[in-house]
């Protein structure tokens, strides 16, 4: 029974994990298992100790909120970084496609230019033959 440790020390009370120490009234009581936090009429959060004597519930709630918020922010940053990497990979692949398209067009122009040169050469050769300058 936790009540036997009332008016003793916090350490003695919390040796039993089912006990809750209230520092303001120096009472040791059963932890209200049905509730996550002890009700205010039982003990104030700043005076309630459970598990260890050096952490009260108020500090525990603040610390857990800070840790939880930090984790959420880190997850958000990681998600943003992943999205940015995916976008940058897409942007890198698009210029590759543009470069391939430009190379194909250059090759087509080069082939057409060679065909025109060949046609012009054959015409000039015909004219030279016709007028006997060859």
TrEMBL record:
Keyword entries, A-Z? Glycoprotein, Membrane, Signal, Transmembrane, Transmembrane helix
**Membrane-spanning intervals of the chain:** 59-84
Q: Which residues form the PSI domain?
A: 1-54
- UniProt cross-references to InterPro entries, sorted A to Z: PSI, PTTG1IP
Which cellular compartments is it found in?
Membrane
Q: How does it sit in the membrane?
A: Single-pass type I membrane protein
Q: Where is this region: Disordered?
A: 88-134
In the record, biological process GO terms are:
protein import into nucleus
Basic and acidic residues compositional bias: what residue ranges? 91-134
A GO cellular component annotated for this chain's UniProt record is: cytoplasm
Q: Which PANTHER family match?
A: PITUITARY TUMOR-TRANSFORMING GENE 1 PROTEIN-INTERACTING PROTEIN, PROTEIN CBG20567
UniProt protein name = PTTG protein
Q: State the species of origin.
A: Thinocorus orbignyianus
Q: Which gene encodes it?
A: Pttg1ip_1
